[in-house]
Amino acid sequence: AQGAFSAYNTCAVRQAGGWRQVMGEDIVLTYRLLELGYASGYEPAAVGYTKVPETLGGLYRQRRRWAMGMLEGLREVPPWRQRGYARYFTSVNLSILYLDLAYLFGFVPGVILALFGYCYLVGLLTLFTALVGALFFWTVYRYQKRLGIPFKNTVFGFVLFLLFFQLVQSTASLNGYLCHIMGKKGEWK
Fold first, then answer.
1. pLDDT digits (tens, 9 = 90+) for 140-157
2. Other beta carbons less than 10 A from residue 178's beta carbon
3. C-alpha to C-alpha distance for 73 and 93, rounded to whole angstroms
4. Is 55 helix (H, G, I), strand (E, B) or coil?
5. What percent of the chain has pLDDT over 70?
6. Distance, CA of 9 to chain centre
7. Cβ atoms 24, 72 nearer than 8 A
8. Cα–Cα distance, 22 to 180 (Å, whole number)
9. Predicted structure pTM score
10. What's the 3-state SS for 112-167?
């Protein structure tokens, strides 16, 4: 649950040990609450506003922080210690690690090489990555659609997502993963 759009039960937060001083304090707290058996709900009719990145650099830094926070949450409470449907969504986070790496080191170079007639990386791994990504995105999409979240479906939007946004997202995430693994402290800019 994103901290900016969340409301927490004070007693539950105290039972979970309170807020930790980490980059992903909201995801760490949410995972700890899920481990204790509390539910995390979503209200599709709620209206909330937050400050969003206005530059590509701001988006990059935000996604790097989020990647660091995701690893903090997964380290604190891995999916196998959670219950119910939350376990599935946390497991999706584990697949995001694979998808980021496969996208950056397999899919993008494979497509570029294939455009020049070298199909060394385009094959079963590319197909597997596309299928895993499609499966997880489809299941999350279906779940959110059941909650009544309105979507604007366009092929152009999906292509932009795949070729531009995902490149920024995966690159920033890789930077965040490496910072976390090397023990670097993130900063809020």
1. 778 777 877 776 777 777
2. 13
3. 10
4. coil
5. 94
6. 24
7. yes
8. 11
9. 0.78
10. HHHHCCCCCCCCHHHHHHHHHHHHHHHHHHHHHHHCCCCCCCCHHHHHHHHHHHHH
Q: Report which DSSP code applies to 80.
A: G
Residue 20 corresponds to which tokens in the numbers above?
């930790």
Q: Which two tokens stand for residue 43?
A: 């209200």
- DSSP class per residue in 160-188: HIIIIIHHHHHHHHHHHHHHHHTTPPP--
Q: Do 126 and 110 form a contact (C-beta atoms < 8 A)? A: yes
In this structure, what token pair is assigned to residue 25?
């304090």
One-letter amino acid for residue 188 of the chain: W
Query: 111 — phi, psi (to 5°)?
Result: -65, -45
pLDDT digits (tens, 9 = 90+) for 121-142: 777 777 777 777 778 777 777 8
Residue with token string 């060394």? 120
Nearest of 174, 182, 180, 157 to residue 27 by alpha carbon? 180
**Both tokens assigned to 10:** 């004070």
CB 29 within 8 A of CB 22: no
| Mean per-residue pLDDT of the chain | 82
Q: Tokens representing 176?
A: 């965040």
Express each pLDDT in 60-75 by its tens digit: 999 999 999 999 988 8
> Which tokens is 130 given?
């596309």
